[in-house]
Amino acid sequence: MTGDEASTVAVPVDLMEKLPELRENPFRRRICEVFSKDGKGNLTFEDFLDLLSVFSEQAPRDIKVFYAFRIYDFDNDQYIGMGDLEVALRLLTHNELTPEEVAQVCEKAIEEADVDGDGKLSYMEFEHVILRAPDFFSTFHIRI
After folding, report:
1. Does the predicted model carry a pTM greater than 0.85?
2. Cys staple from 10: which of 6, 42, 92, 114, with CB 3.0 to 4.6 Å?
């Protein structure tokens, strides 16, 4: 494989999601989308190496926070709003909460973290919350 092929030939997202390291992760599709050059989750070899690098236990925390923000920003608007939180919560709870419960949890999360009161989380607000979460760095990794 030439260098050009390594950056253009991609493994389809449906196959990537079946990897043991991703299979049980409720964010598996979103993770692939964030790391893929095409934005659809189809990963080139370089994309895959980037993913593994960020999810390694040795990756700097700033890099991990940056990619965690991107993963949670489902609509790619540079903020984590109610819609983003609702999608994340549904994925995390496997759609077991009622719409009212989802809305209540998301509203509380925004209320707790939204410093400027605009109803959404900026990168700085998200970073502030994540850096105070003791489990974040021990769980934001993939072991291979």
Report:
1. yes
2. 42
